[in-house]
Amino acid sequence: GEGPVGCADSFGAKLDVVIDEIREAGRQGVWMRVPIAQAAAIPAAAARGFRYHHAEGDSAMLLAWLPPSASPVPDFATHVIGVGGMVLDEASHEVLVVKERVAATSTSQGSWKLPGGLVDLGEEFADGAAREVLEETGVRAAFRAILAARHQHGAAFGRDDLYMICLMAPLTTEIDFDPHEISDCRWIPLSEYYDATRATSKRQGVEENFNAFVVRNVLAACERGDDLGRLGFGSREMGSPVGYQKGVTGLTSKPTYRIYSGLSRRTASI
Amino acid sequence: GEGPVGCADSFGAKLDVVIDEIREAGRQGVWMRVPIAQAAAIPAAAARGFRYHHAEGDSAMLLAWLPPSASPVPDFATHVIGVGGMVLDEASHEVLVVKERVAATSTSQGSWKLPGGLVDLGEEFADGAAREVLEETGVRAAFRAILAARHQHGAAFGRDDLYMICLMAPLTTEIDFDPHEISDCRWIPLSEYYDATRATSKRQGVEENFNAFVVRNVLAACERGDDLGRLGFGSREMGSPVGYQKGVTGLTSKPTYRIYSGLSRRTASI
C-alpha cells in the first residue's frame, strides 16, 4: 500500500539493502540523520539496530553499530561547564554576591553565592563568566584567572558538570540586578561571604563545601598579602592549528604562592 | 481509522488537550520522553511545536517551549573533555609518547604525541587519564596535576572540547601498546618530544601549538630544577553536598614557580 505502513515497509526494505552494502564494504557503523518531520521512519530503523546517538532541534542522528561488540563511538557530549565569577575589589576585599530566587539545592536557598551560570556552546570561559556576572548583577568585570574547579556527576539530564570559580576584577561597581533570577545582590566583605559558605556547608552536612574551600584559600592569600593576579590558571590565546576554528584558549597556570593544597586525594588540605 | 494515520491523528488531538491544560496551569515548557519504538508519534508533536532537546539510545526527549520568547532551557551538554597523560620519569626526564595509527588531523599524522583520550561520562579526570595511558601503552601511571587546558570549539558533532594535560608519575615502565590504536610507543627525552611538538606546530602553520607550549614550560621547569609535583592544579576529594552523588573532585592549584605565563590575553608568553 501507499499509506504510512507501506512507506515504512518499503523504507525498511531499502534500509536492509543499504545496511548490507555498508557491511560488505567493511564499514562497522552506519549513521543516519532523520529530520523531525520524517521521524515516522525511526521505528523501522530501530528494528534494524539503529539507536539514537544524539538529537537536537529539528533532527536526530541515529547510529547502527554492526559488529556484535559494543560500539566504541564516543558519547555526543558528556559535560556542561559552569563558571562562577568571584568579582573581588582588591582594595576593600569586598566580593559581589547574589541570592538566587530559586537555588539549585534547597540547602543553598537563601545563601549568598557567586553570580554565575553555564557557559554557552562556543563561548570562551572568560566571556561566559563576564556575561553571567553582567546579566545577574549589572556589574562589568574582567576575567583574571580560574582559581579552582569542581567536577560533579549526575547533573541535569544525567550529564557531568565542571564548575570553575573565576577570579574577576570589577570594571564598574553599581549594582542593577536581574529581578527574575536574583532576589538580592550586594558587595560584602570576603570574610562575611566565607561565613555564609560555612553556614551552607553545615546545612549540607559537609565539613566544607567547594565554595567555602575556595574562599578560605583566597582569604588566606589576602591575609598574606599575596598578589591575587598570580593565583590559578590564566587565559591565553593559542595558535589555532589547521582544521580548528578560532577561539582556542590556553588556560595557563601562573606563579602562585601556597594557596591550595592537595597533591593527591591522599593528601589532606591545608 | 485505526491504522497509523488514525493513531497519529488521535495522538495529536490528545496532545492538543494536554498542551492546553499545561498552558492554563501557567507552565511554559512541556517535556515529552518518546521511546524509539514510538517515534512515529514525533511528527504530530513537531507540528505542535515540540523539538528534540536530546536523545540517546532508546529514547528521545522533546521539549515544547510555549511562550513566543526563545527557550531559556540549557543545552543538553555542550562539552566533551579529553585528558592527555604526560607520564614523566623525573630522574631521566623521559616522557612516554605514542604515534597514533590514524591521527585526529593530517598535520599531526606520524608525530609523537601524549597518550590520552576522552573522559567517560561519570569518570574522574585522574582516573580517565590513567585508564587512557594504560589502554594505549600498557604503562601504569598515577595522576599528579593538571598542567594546562585548551578549550576548542567545533569539535565532533559541533560540540566544544576541553583538553587537559595531566602530569603523571610512572608506576611501571614496560611498554605493551595497543596495536589497534597505536603504531609506536616509546620513552623519549622530553627535549626530543619538544622538538616533535615544534615540528607539528610548523606543519600546522602556527608558531607554537598547545602541546609545544606546555612542553616548553615543563622543560624550563625541569631545567630550573623545580619540584614538578608543585606544578598546576591537583585533585582533591571534596565534601559532597546533599543531592549530589559521590565522585566530587576539587582541582586545586598548588604552589608553583613561574612556569606558565599569561595574566590575560594581553600579556605575552614568557
TrEMBL record, chains A, B:
What is the species of this protein?
Coccolithus braarudii
Alphabetically sorted, this entry's keywords are: Cytoplasm, Hydrolase, Mitochondrion, Nucleus
Q: Which family does it belong to?
A: Belongs to the Nudix hydrolase family.
Q: Which residues form the Nudix hydrolase domain?
A: 78-210
Instruction: Report the SUPFAM superfamilies cross-referenced here.
Output: Nudix
Q: Which CDD domains match?
A: NUDIX_ASFGF2_Nudt6 (cd04670)
Question: Can you supply one Gene Ontology CC term for this chain's record?
Answer: mitochondrion
Q: What is this protein called?
A: Nucleoside diphosphate-linked moiety X motif 6
Q: Which N-terminal stretch is annotated as signal sequence?
A: none
